[in-house]
Amino acid sequence: xxxxxxxxxxxxxxxxxxxxxxxxxxxxxxxxxxxxxxxxxxxxxxxxxxxxxxxxxxxxxxxxxxxxxxxxxxxxxxxxxxxxxxxxxxxxxxxxxxxxxxxxxxxxxxxxxxxxxxxxxxxxxxxxxxxxxxxxxxxxxxxxxxxxxxxxxxxxxxxxxxxxxxxxxxxxxxxxxxxxxxxxxxxxxxxxxxxxxxxxxxxxxxxxxxxxxxxxxxxxxxxxxxxxxxxxxxxxxxxxxxxxxxxxxxxxxxxxxxxxxxxxx
Length: 265
Prior knowledge:
Elements: H1 2-17, H2 19-22, E1 28-37, E2 43-47, E3 53-58, E4 62-71, H3 74-79, E5 81-86, E6 90-96, H4 99-102, E7 110-118, E8 122-127, E9 133-136, E10 141-145, E11 151-156, E12 159-163, E13 169-173, E14 181-185, E15 191-195, E16 201-209, E17 212-214, H5 221-224, E18 234-240, E19 245-253, E20 256-260
């Protein structure tokens, strides 16, 4: 119980510490918009420190980048840079914070991004420290991480690697092939994975302090262990359908739910 108390206190401190950031108390702001050609199966990456990210898709072979920069004043705003490295196969977005602020994780600065990318593109790396990430409709592979924030991805097909420290992780597969995969990880937060009821997959799931529930009839360690009432954690190792896709889900402080997608239950 002692370890749980320490982690829980840390989570509360996080909530209060990022409050001013989420409230957008910055006095200066500036919009940014650019579009770049990208092949249908090209790669997109984004690096940022502070700010929410929303990514959707379309049928165009093009990446549209919309952003809003926030800073304390106009001078600080001018020193906050968005840099793009673009070719036919790669669009890489880098957020450059003033050097004197880097060691403080960009305190006083924030950039919110909205990206529209080709449906079959790969999200090679979306990295944040403070902010939520929402992804929808990407059929290529997806990799995203944040420290303080939630990650949600829906209408997945290829596979995903989603990680956060303080926040919920959610992934919903619109279809699941044999080569699909999911790696979902949080420390302080619940994790939810949903997929069609007809999916075939191998599942490994574990939580240190929480419970696991699922719609696929898989038995968890707490359900099978007569002494489970004295244990805090839970785990599942099993096969859905014939097995196939590789699914790994884990958290420390939080529950795990493995669900059938709506309409397939």
